[in-house]
From TrEMBL:
Coiled coil: none annotated. The keyword Hydrolase does not apply. Keywords: Pyridoxal phosphate. Belongs to the trans-sulfuration enzymes family. The keyword Lipid biosynthesis does not apply. This is Cystathionine gamma-lyase. It comes from Saccharopolyspora taberi. Gene3D superfamilies: Aspartate Aminotransferase, domain 1, Type I PLP-dependent aspartate aminotransferase-like (Major domain). Its cofactor is pyridoxal 5'-phosphate. InterPro entries: Cys/Met-Metab_PyrdxlP-dep_enz (IPR000277), PyrdxlP-dep_Trfase (IPR015424), PyrdxlP-dep_Trfase_major (IPR015421), PyrdxlP-dep_Trfase_small (IPR015422).
Amino acid sequence: MQPGMVMAAPYHLGGGDFYGRAGNPTWRALETAIGDLDGGRCVLLPSGMAAISTLLRSVLRHGDAVVLPSDGYYATRQLVADEFADLALDVREIPTPGPWPDGVFDGVRLVLLETPSNPGGDVCDIAELAERAHAAGALVAVDNTTATPLGQRPLELGADIVVASDTKALAGHSDLLMGHLSVRDDELAERFVRARTLSGSIPGPFETWLVHRSIGTLDLRLARQAENAAALVERLRGHPAVSGLRWPGAAGDPAHEAAKRQMRRWGGVFRFELADAAAVAEFLRRSRLVVAATSFGGLHSTVDRRAQWGDPVPEGFVRFSAGCEDTADLVADVLQALS
Ligand SMILES: *Cc1c(COP(=O)(O)O)cnc(C)c1O
């Protein structure tokens, strides 16, 4: 090879295994697996936020309009408000359950939906909103973290891009961070790969291998988590200490009908309110199985009091992530801790 040829080669496109930042067989194995589940081409990133920032940096230009969920993952709004301030974006924040006013997508470059939303578990109709956004010329991305690809396939519903934190239920063991983007458009996929290679925002091969090892039990974990959530929601309904109980998997929940149309499985994440912050602390002190953690979707049941992170929710708002414990044990423990 002539001197200078190495730099001239399009090394950012990956494919070769000459340098770990451009590509390696461990990434490709997991990207093939997740891409199959999403129904698209997957590009791994080292965290959900790395996937979201790679998406926004690759797609948005100065002065663009972008639609974000006002009730979704808080760091996404923070990223746009702080790190992207110089882009002078026209940011339109809409709550996931709507209303989605006429003209809301006019002149918009990118619409980011999050359904079910974190922390509220609200749902929007991906197919309907994708059709409206496409008619206005916008790209549509769906944050699919809470659903996982086994619960929902946004690309089949008309979205252009799946973005997800695999740190949560997909990896499911609360011991690593990972994220990904999935698309059907090869040009978009190449843009994401180039951004990953040149920014150096890359997953570690060991974490990648752990995620691949873990997705073999994703179906089993989601099934038990949903079973535990259903049992807890049933027992907590009407409980004197509990208000605002919501789970998209529950018949009668305001999100249930929309969720049923587009989801194939429920996860174990639901929400409710206790009187105040002290009541949540007391609940956690008394429980033997439930621990405080801001992540969710893991083997162990966890509670996150979202107001502590600045989410616009009441002080006693609890996002409960049902784990894979024995259902009777978990229900008994939660009820005694609330008594
Ligand atoms: C956790 C989360 C993220 C961020 O993922 P990290 O892996 O923590 O970077 C993004 N979106 C949603 C909905 C999340 O729950």
